[in-house]
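Support request, please re-run this one:
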Amino acid sequence: MFHKKRLWVGVYGLLLILFTLYVLLDTFVITRVYSVLPEELPQGADAFQQADSPAQAPSQMEQEDSSPSEEAVPNNAQEGLTYDDGNISISIAEYRQLDTTIYVADVKLSSAKYLQTALAQNAYGRNVTETTSEIAEQHNAILAVNGDYYGAQEQGYVLKNGVLYRETAAQDQEDLVIYEDGSFEIIQEMEISAQDLLANGAQQILSFGPALIEDGEIAVTGEEEVGRAKASNPRTAIGIVEDLHYLFVVSDGRTAESAGLSLYQLAEFLQSLGAKTAYNLDGGGSSTMVFEGQVINNPTTNGRTIRERSVSDIVYIGT
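Re-run finished. Output below.
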C-alpha cells in the first residue's frame, strides 16, 4: 500500500510538471494565429476574435520624482535624417537630457491616411511577433516605432486600420484613439465600447498607456504610478502638436550611456515639444525607432546587448 501511494504521488507530480510546462509554452512560445490579413482590408471591417490566455504584458514603470525640465533642444546628432514627398514630411532629431539619449521624429502629413499600424507576420494572434524593422520593411514604412504589443494582453481593445479584432474591455485601461481625420482622444475602455468607437470613426486604438499629456497638461501623477516599478527605462511615445502634426519619441535606457526616462520625465519632455495629447506605448526592450530601413536608437532588454526585441505590432508612417 505504501509503495502504491508513493507511485501515485510520483505520477501526480510528473503530471503537474508537464501541465505547468505546457502552460508556459502555450503562454510564451506557441504561436496561435486567429486571422490573417488580406492584402487590402475594407475600412470599418469587424474581424473580432477573442484571444485566450496571452503572455503577460511587459510591465509599465512607475515615474520617478523629477524637477521640471528645461525646454528641449536637439543636439543635431541626427541632422540630415529627413524625408519630404509633398504629403509626408519627417525630420529626425536627437536630444540629450537627464543623462538619456532621446530620438524625436517630427511628422507633418497632408492626410491622416499616412498614419497606420501593422501586425507582425500580417496576422492577428498570440505570440505572433517580428522585430519592428522587419514589420516596417514588409509595409514599406518610412518611419516606424513599436506599438502597444497587443499580443501580450489578455484583454483590451485591438483596432488596427479600421479593423476590430478584439472588443473585450479591460478594467482601468486607458487607450489612445486615433480617428480617421487624424485627431487623438484618450478614453477609458470601461466607459465606451469598441463598437461605438468604430462607429464614431476610430481607425486605431492603442491599448498600453498611460496617457502622458491631455489638453496640453501632464496627465501622469505620482499617485497613479504607485503600483509600478520606480525606474527609468527605454520609452516609446506618440504625441500630437496640432492637426496632422505628430511626434514619435523613443528614448534609450538601461545602459551606461543612457539612463532612460520615467513616465513623468517623458511627459515633461513631450510637453516641452508642444504636444497637446501624448500617450505611452510599450517600452523597455521593445522601444525601437526605424527610419527608412535603419534602426535609429539602441534597443536593449538587459542593457548588455543592443538588439531589437520582437513585438506584435508597429505604428508607422507610409504611403
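The two ends are 74 Å apart (CA to CA). The longest helix spans residues 2-28.
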